[in-house]
Design brief:
With 477 residues, this protein is of the alpha+beta class. It contains eleven helices and twelve strands. Helix 6 (228-277) packs antiparallel against helix 7 (283-314) and helix 9 (362-378) packs antiparallel against helix 11 (437-447).
């Protein structure tokens, strides 16, 4: 018990797994919302500053290059003519890096050297831009050489400390953070709802399966919605319906089979008791009783064989199928049934075509023809007729067995293939019928991949029509 409790505690439920998965997804989305828009805004601001500052540096460099030689006085005059009034700090140096102009002289007085890496690179002929976001501000720097006919005579350096754009980005970041908090809250509520709803529905299915396992095939689960779980629930309900029908058929089959076996067994028991209790029974009576016992034993054997045939079809074991010439099977079957037909004064007529080959089991084909022709003989009238026609039509082998017998009422035709079903129970027992022959025929036809139909014969009697796909050799007809 302790181990089972520990196992349940260590093994997370479906609700916990779903909650963890949804929570991970929400956290991932929240992180993405807080990082991506801010990073994108920073990149856009940085790209804008690069374009603006390099354009400004290029303008200054081009203008100063017209002086051909940079001096402090010349640079000041040029800068005044350019009327530079920007938010940038601008430094102009000569080719040695000495500061000739600085619009913020308090930070780097003129005459000093600009000990800046950007200036050093610009004096080597390189164009430099650098931007960094730190302490809620953008620090951007740009440098460009001043060249005359390919010779560097100085450099222009621009720098900017921008906190306004940083404020805007901080606002975006705060908005994204509040939005992610709101989405996380809504998501957590949805997680609690769905992580409890879905496992509950699955738990209902598990409970229903346990109920079904105990043998209660009447249990149904209410179907709500149209999602996959609802579809699964609907399939479960359909399965219980099929299981209930199967169970009902099984019970009815067992009941009918028991009844069929009980009748001859009771007769045998009664006859044998009569023999045992009668001391001075004459030989003729003894022979009559023994003959009756033999007839009942034969009837019991026939019923048992038919039950075994039905069990074989229900076993779902794949049976070997091979090309079967139905004409040969029909000829052999008719030869076996001819004495029965003669004894009942029924005329057998047949019309058998060549080339009626099907892919089936030979025993099954025999059962089909034998049962149909035997029924036609047994349930016929004196001087009646049973006609068997075998031919090929539209790529199908067509077997037709029609008789001029007592026929089948229209209301009974939908049930004649049901097991133990009899149109007239008294008459069936009189002829030795068990209500299994047509069930065997139906299952054998299905096993061979064919179809069977029944209809009234004109002017009286019954017609059975069986069709199979015609067998064709590979590469031939």
């Amino acid at each position: 018990m302790k181990n089972e409790l520990l196992d349940r505690l260590l093994r997370p439920s479906l609700a916990v797994k779903l909650s963890a998965a949804f929570l991970t997804l929400v956290l991932g989305v929240a992180i993405l919302i807080n990082i991506y828009p801010v990073a994108l805004a920073r990149d856009l601001v940085s790209a804008n500053k690069r374009s603006s500052m390099l354009d400004q540096a290029s303008l200054l460099s081009t203008s100063l290059a017209a002086l051909e030689q940079l001096t402090e006085e010349g640079v000041y005059q040029a800068m005044e003519l350019l009327d530079v009034s920007t938010s940038y700090r601008i430094i102009v140096t000569d080719e040695r890096g000495e500061i000739l102009y600085d619009n913020y002289p308090a930070y780097s007085p003129v005459g000093k050297y600009a000990l800046l890496s950007e200036v050093n690179l610009a004096l080597r002929g390189k164009i430099v831009f650098y931007s960094r976001y730190a302490d809620n501000a953008f620090l951007s720097r740009a440098a460009m050489p001043v060249a005359v006919q390919g010779a560097v005579i100085g450099s222009v350096f621009l720098s900017e400390y921008d906190s306004e754009q940083s404020t805007l980005i901080s606002g975006i970041s705060s908005t994204m953070f509040r939005l992610s908090i709101l989405l996380a809250g809504i998501s957590l509520v949805l997680i609690l709802v769905f992580s409890r709803a879905l496992p509950r529905r699955i738990s209902d299915l598990v409970r229903a399966v346990n109920i079904l396992r105990e043998g209660n095939y009447d249990y149904q689960i209410p179907v709500k919605g149209s999602d996959e779980v609802s579809a699964l629930t609907g399939e479960f309900n359909s399965m219980t319906d099929r299981l209930r029908e199967t169970e009902e058929r099984r019970r009815r089959f067992v009941s009918d089979a028991s009844h069929e076996l009980k009748t001859p067994l009771a007769s045998i028991r009664l006859l044998s008791d009569s023999i045992m209790q009668t001391e001075d029974m004459d030989a003729a009576t003894m022979r009559e009783f023994v003959s009756d016992i033999g007839a009942e034993a034969e009837r019991l054997q026939r019923t048992t064989e038919k039950l075994l045939s039905l069990t074989r079809f229900d076993s779902a074991v794949e049976r070997r199928r091979e090309p079967v010439d139905m004409k040969l099977v029909a000829e052999n079957t008719l030869r076996l049934l001819r004495p029965l037909a003669q004894g009942r004064k029924v005329f057998l007529k047949y019309d058998l075509s060549e080339g009626c080959v099907v892919l089936a089991n030979g025993d099954d084909v025999y059962q089909i023809i034998f049962n149909l022709v035997e029924n036609g003989i047994k349930y016929n009238v004196p001087d009646g007729m049973v006609h068997l026609h075998l031919g090929v039509r539209d790529g199908l082998v067509r077997l037709v067995v029609e008789d001029s017998g007592i026929g089948i009422p229209e209301g009974d035709m939908p049930h004649i293939f049901d097991r133990f079903y009899r149109v007239d129970k008294a008459r069936s027992r009189e002829h030795g019928g068990s209500g299994l022959g047509l069930s065997i025929v139906h299952d054998a036809v299905a096993e061979c991949g064919g179809s069977i139909a029944v209809e009234p014969n004109s002017p009286r009697g019954t017609r059975f029509i069986v069709q199979f796909p015609k067998y064709a050799k590979e590469g031939g007809r």
